[in-house]
Amino acid sequence: MLYYSGHTRRIGDVDDGSTVTDFLPAERARGITIQSAAITFNWPPEANKTEDSRIIKAIQKQELPRSALSHRINLIDTPGHADFTFEVRRSLRILDGAVCVLDGVAGVEAQTEQVWNQAADWKIPRIAYVNKLDREGAAFGQTVREIGVRLKGWPAVCQIPWFEGGKGKFCGIVDVINLCGMKYEAGGDGKSIERYNLSELETKEPSLAEELRKARAALVELLSEHDEIMVDAFLEADEDHLAITPAQLLASVRRCLMSGDGTVIPVFAGASFRNIGVQPVLDAVDDLLPSPEERPFAEVSIGESTAGLDELLEGKMVAPNSAGSKPGKKIEAAVPAMDKMLKGCALAFKVVNDARKGMLVYIRVYSGTIDRNALLYNTNLKQSERATNLLRMYANESVPVQSLEAGQIGVIAGSKYARTGDTLIVCNTNKATPPAPLDKLQLRPIHVPPPVFFASIEPNSLKDEKDMHDKLNLLLREDPSLHITQDEDTGQTLISGMGELHLEIARDRLVGDLRANATMGKIAIGYRETLTQTSSSHTKIFDSSARGDVKGKSGCTAIVDSNNPDMPDEDYHDNALRHEQDQNVVIVEAPSLDKQGRPLTDDAISLPGHLSLGDVQSAFTNGALAALARGPAFSYPMRNVKVALTIDPAQHIFGSETSYASLTAAARLATISAFREVHSAGGSALMEPVMNVNIAVDDASMGSIIQDISSSRGGQIVALGDNEEAEAEEQNSARDIDVAKIYAPKDPFEFGTSSSIGQQINKPRTVKAKVPLKEMVGYLKHLRSMTGGRGTFTMSVDRFERMTGQREKALVAELRGGT
C-alpha cells in the first residue's frame, strides 16, 4: 500500500524484517506484529488539483467512482496474535472502517472470528481481502463459504481469482463490478497490469468469462435482497444483470456496508507476496468505506447519562437531576448546548514511550480541532496540560503539525498524564478546569480484558528497585492490559498479562528497550480463592491510636459466605447498598437508619454531620473490596464470595473521630477477620481459570489432539469442526446463512459442490474445548510438535472453577514449596 501510494520506494517483506509498520526489534525478529502502528498516505497518490471540481461533480452524478479523487487514508496495522488482543481492541475503538485480511489456504481462522466480533461491537464497516491465493492449496471459493458460515454475513464477491487456463498458476483477478480482468506481470512489482474487458475475456478465457457472468448475476441478486434502490435499478435495466453500471453497484454495496452490522461482506482477492490485487483493495477503501463525517457521532456520557456527541453539542442531551427527586422517581434536566464552549474533543487510544521524543499519546479527534499549545483537560484524571507538540505519525517517523481536525489521528508528544482510554477536551476558556458538565464528559471507554498469566519480576540489586518500578510504570502506561501487583507479605512484584508471548515481549521491552536491571521469573497462573462455609459475625474497631498510618476511629461488623450467582439475594433493608464485582457481592446495611441516614427509632443514634449514609456505604464497600483482593490461604484474589457489612452508629461511629479512611480500614479488618475464621475451619478452597480453547489442526492430527486434551490435560471437548451442520446452526443462530445460497466460484481442484467444504487433506479443522489454564502453559510448542508446525490455537477465559481432589492437593503442595 505504501509503495503504490508513493510513500516508500521499495516493497517491504515480513520475512526479511524490512516492513515499515513492524519496526520494533521483537517484531522483526519474530516476523509478527506486536504493537499497532499508524501511518498516513494518499490514494490515489497524486490528485489533479485543476480537475478536482470536475471530478467531484462526476462522482456526485455517479459517473465516476469515489476513488477517482485522492483521499487521505489513516492506516493502522494491528497484530493478529491472540496475546495482543487488547492492541486490536484499542485500535478498533477509533476506526471508521476495516480491511480483514484472510489466508486463502487456512480460510477463516479462530482469531479472525474474535477480531471480527470485536469490530461488530463498534459497528465498523468491514471488507474482506482473501490473500495468499498463489500458494498451493489456496481455495478462494471455500474461503468465501467460510466467511458466510463463520462471520455470519452474506459474502458479496466483488472479485474472483484468475488462474491461467482455469487450473494454472494464479496470475490476476477479475473485477465483478467493472466486468474486466486484470492480469499482472509475473514476478513484477504489481504496477504492470494488462486489462481485458468482458468480450476480450470471452475470447482469451471463455470459462473465466462465463464465471464472471455468474458472479455479476449473484452480486446483483444479493444486493437486491438488502437494498431497495438496487431493485429499482435492476428493473430499469430490464432485469439485465450486466446492464447495471459499476457506479450503481458500488453505491449499493456502500449503502449495505454503512450500518456496520456485517450483513453484507464485500470480498476481494489477491496475493500480496506476488504484488497482485493490492491497488484494487485501495480503490475499494476509497469507494466503499466511510469517511469520518459519514460515521455516527461518538457516544459520550456525563455521569450516568449517555447520548451522541451531536446531541450534546446541540443541547438535546438530558441528564438525571438528583436534586429534589423522590425515591424511585427520576427527574431529567436538559444539558445546555455545548457547541460554543467545546472547541475540541479527542480520545487517547494508545501510549508509547519513545527514547527521543518522550511519551507519545496517540489520539483520535472526534469533534472540533486540537491546536498546538492548546490547554487539554483530561476528564478521567481531572488534570490539565498543554499540547506543546503535535505530530502526525508515519510508523516510527513523525512530522510536526499545527493542528488536528475532527476525524484525524495524531500524536501529542511529551504528555505527562494521558493514558489509554482517557478523554481529552479543549474549551473556549483559559481556565484549567472546564465548566460543568464538560468536566465530566467522557467518550465510551476501551474495555481492558483481565490478565490470566503472571510472573514474578525482581530487581538485580536493592539500588535498582526504584528504577525498575519507574520503568514498570512506563510499561503499564503503554500497555494497560499488563498489571503490576505487590505481594504485601513477601514484597515480591508480580506482572500479569494475556499470555505467554505477551509476558515474554513485556520482559524484552523492560530489560532490552527500557534497560531495567531486573529478572523475570517463570510464568505462573492467576488462581482465585473462594469460601465453602459461612462465618460468624465479626466486629472490628479500628483505632488510629494503635495504628498511625490512618487517622480516625471506626468500627464495622462483617459476615462472609459463599456467593451463588444463580441464587436470589436474601431480603435486606431498604437502605442496603449492593455492589457486585468479579462475581463477588458486597452488601452494606444500616438497620437503624433510613435511606437519608436518619434514625428509624427515637433511641437510635444518627450519623455525625460530616458523614452521610452514602459516604459510609462507599467506605465500607472499598474496605471489603480491598480485603477481597487477597485471600486468607495463598493471597490470591477472592471469587464467588458474599460479604455482608453492618453499620451501627451506636457501636461503630465515634463522632468527629470517625473519618472516611478509618471506616474503610475497619471494614477491611472485619472482612479479613471473617475470612481467617472460615479458612481456619477448613472452609476455603482454590479456584482455577478454565479456558475456552479453539484449536485449528488438520485431519491427520485431529485424533491425537483430542486424546491429548481429554486425557492428558483434563479438558472437555465441546465441539468438533467436522460437524458442519451443528457448527453452522450454532454460528448462524443470530443470522440465518444458508451455505447453499452463497455464491462462490469453483476452486481449480474442487470436486463436487459446496457440501465438500473442507475435504482437502490439509484443511484445518477446529476443536473446541474447555481446559484448565495450568494445562495450557507451554501448549503452543507441544501443539506444533504434534502437528508438524501447522497447528494453532486461541483461548479466552470461560470461568473460574473450584479445584477438588488430587489437582487441589498437588497445587497446594506446589504453592507450599513441596513436590
UniProtKB/TrEMBL annotation:
<dbReference type="InterPro" id="IPR030851">
    <property type="entry name" value="EFG2"/>
</dbReference>
<keyword id="KW-0342">GTP-binding</keyword>
<dbReference type="InterPro" id="IPR041095">
    <property type="entry name" value="EFG_II"/>
</dbReference>
<feature type="domain" description="Tr-type G">
    <location>
        <begin position="1"/>
        <end position="293"/>
    </location>
</feature>
<dbReference type="InterPro" id="IPR009022">
    <property type="entry name" value="EFG_III"/>
</dbReference>
<dbReference type="InterPro" id="IPR000640">
    <property type="entry name" value="EFG_V-like"/>
</dbReference>
<dbReference type="Pfam" id="PF22042">
    <property type="entry name" value="EF-G_D2"/>
</dbReference>
<dbReference type="GO" id="GO:0005759">
    <property type="term" value="C:mitochondrial matrix"/>
</dbReference>
<dbReference type="InterPro" id="IPR031157">
    <property type="entry name" value="G_TR_CS"/>
</dbReference>
<dbReference type="InterPro" id="IPR009000">
    <property type="entry name" value="Transl_B-barrel_sf"/>
</dbReference>
<feature type="binding site">
    <location>
        <begin position="77"/>
        <end position="81"/>
    </location>
    <ligand>
        <name>GTP</name>
    </ligand>
</feature>
<dbReference type="InterPro" id="IPR014721">
    <property type="entry name" value="Ribsml_uS5_D2-typ_fold_subgr"/>
</dbReference>
<dbReference type="GO" id="GO:0032543">
    <property type="term" value="P:mitochondrial translation"/>
</dbReference>
<dbReference type="Pfam" id="PF00679">
    <property type="entry name" value="EFG_C"/>
</dbReference>
<dbReference type="InterPro" id="IPR035647">
    <property type="entry name" value="EFG_III/V"/>
</dbReference>
<dbReference type="Pfam" id="PF00009">
    <property type="entry name" value="GTP_EFTU"/>
</dbReference>
<keyword id="KW-0648">Protein biosynthesis</keyword>
<dbReference type="GO" id="GO:0032790">
    <property type="term" value="P:ribosome disassembly"/>
</dbReference>
<comment type="similarity">
    <text>Belongs to the TRAFAC class translation factor GTPase superfamily. Classic translation factor GTPase family. EF-G/EF-2 subfamily.</text>
</comment>
<dbReference type="GO" id="GO:0003924">
    <property type="term" value="F:GTPase activity"/>
</dbReference>
<keyword id="KW-0547">Nucleotide-binding</keyword>
<dbReference type="InterPro" id="IPR027417">
    <property type="entry name" value="P-loop_NTPase"/>
</dbReference>
<feature type="binding site">
    <location>
        <begin position="131"/>
        <end position="134"/>
    </location>
    <ligand>
        <name>GTP</name>
    </ligand>
</feature>
<dbReference type="Pfam" id="PF14492">
    <property type="entry name" value="EFG_III"/>
</dbReference>
<dbReference type="InterPro" id="IPR005225">
    <property type="entry name" value="Small_GTP-bd"/>
</dbReference>
<keyword id="KW-0496">Mitochondrion</keyword>
<dbReference type="InterPro" id="IPR053905">
    <property type="entry name" value="EF-G-like_DII"/>
</dbReference>
<protein>
    <recommendedName>
        <fullName>Ribosome-releasing factor 2, mitochondrial</fullName>
    </recommendedName>
</protein>
<comment type="function">
    <text>Mitochondrial GTPase that mediates the disassembly of ribosomes from messenger RNA at the termination of mitochondrial protein biosynthesis. Not involved in the GTP-dependent ribosomal translocation step during translation elongation.</text>
</comment>
<dbReference type="InterPro" id="IPR000795">
    <property type="entry name" value="T_Tr_GTP-bd_dom"/>
</dbReference>
<dbReference type="GO" id="GO:0005525">
    <property type="term" value="F:GTP binding"/>
</dbReference>
<dbReference type="InterPro" id="IPR035649">
    <property type="entry name" value="EFG_V"/>
</dbReference>
